[in-house]
Amino acid sequence: MQAVVQKKFGTPSDALTLAQIDRPEIKDEQVLVRVAAASIHIGDVFMISGVPYAMRPVFMATKAKNGVPGTDVAGTVEAVGRGITTLAPGDEVFGWCKSAFAEYVATTADTLAPKPPNLTFEQASALGVSAFTALQALRDRGHLRAGQKVLINGASGGVGTFAVQIAKSLGADVTGVCSTRNIDLVQSIGADHVIDYTEEDFTLAGGRYDLILDNVGNHSLSDTRRALTPSGTLLPNGSPVGGWFGGLGSVVKSMAVSLVVKQQGRGFLSMPNAKDLATLADMAADGTIMPVIDRVYPLTEAVEAVAHVAE
Asked: Which site from 137, 146, 179, 202 is most exposed, i.e. has the minimal number of CB atoms within 10 Å?
């Protein structure tokens, strides 16, 4: 089968090649999925580039044994192991796995859910890490409630587009921060207010929010907290990444500050799980959330697709 193979860390053009590899063989507890679509999130770029450098031991330990990157997937069940009773060949599914950038993947049944019938495979494949992150940040970490005001910095990105929609579904008043060219997009997915960061700095605009989900990290923690209500919470979920430590410094700083500053939430790591996968499937099926697709590439152009996300 065809697959994208990573032999080393580096830029997409240096680190990735399209190759023929063996189709995976499934164990009793596994499912073989014929991949219809796989989506790319920023974590894939980090794994491929090996940046920040301090994370390379973790990247090495968690990468797929066959060297094929990719996490978010959608497709059709091709075969099931003897221990699988919840899925059958022909079922259309989506979820997470290792080695998604290939024609076939083997994964366990608990990482998959039935594809919502109103979504294309491309849309379903995008209901992955970014959607998990938005859901868990707002619901579990931010404890967002109806009537509260939330600001999503980076509202047009992978996490941001889901965060805007999920925040609206929770009954919040939502402000999205994005560039000029994405204003219409952010409004179309439900934002009540949009701030164009090329024209206005939200930390100086005078607005006060009960929760800020910062997917960008382009301001200091103290400057960002200035836009909070006295009882508000800042959830950091992004910062410039590069060099040895990149955004890790901000994560450590937010953890330390959170011990003495009530408004400062800690950096967090989202964890895919079957319960939340089912929740996302239900939200997509009833139209509460809808993935925003930027571009679609064939597998033969996967290197270019990763490079696009990296930019």
From this structure: 146
Q: What SS3 state is found at 41?
A: coil
* C-alpha–C-alpha distance, residues 26 and 75, integer Å: 16
Cα–Cα distance for residue pair 130/160, rounded to 1 Å: 8
Residue 253's φ and ψ, nearest 5 degrees, are: -65, -45
Using one digit for the tens of pLDDT, what is the confidence trace for 157-204? Answer: 999 999 999 999 999 999 999 999 999 999 999 999 999 999 999 999
Write out the H or E segment, with its range, that includes residue 6: strand 2-6
Contacts of 135 (CB under 8 A, 6+ apart): 162, 166, 276, 279, 280
Q: At 207, list the tokens.
A: 């607005």
Q: Quote the crossing angle between the two packed helices 42-49 and 302-310, to the nearest 10°.
A: 100
Q: C-alpha angle 254/259/263, rounded to 5°?
A: 70
Query: What 3 state SS string does 199-235 have?
Result: CCCCCCCCCCEEEEEECCCCCCHHHHHCCEEEEEEEE
Residue 104, SS3 per DSSP: strand
Distance from C-alpha of 265 to C-alpha of 254, rounded to nearest angstrom: 7
Helices (H) and strands (E) in the chain, counts: 11, 12
| Strands (E) located in 40-172 | 72-80, 92-96, 104-108, 112-114, 149-153
Q: How far apart are CA 53 and CA 50, in angstroms?
A: 6
Question: Dihedrals φ, ψ of 171, to 5°?
Answer: 90, 15
pTM of the complete model beyond 0.90: yes
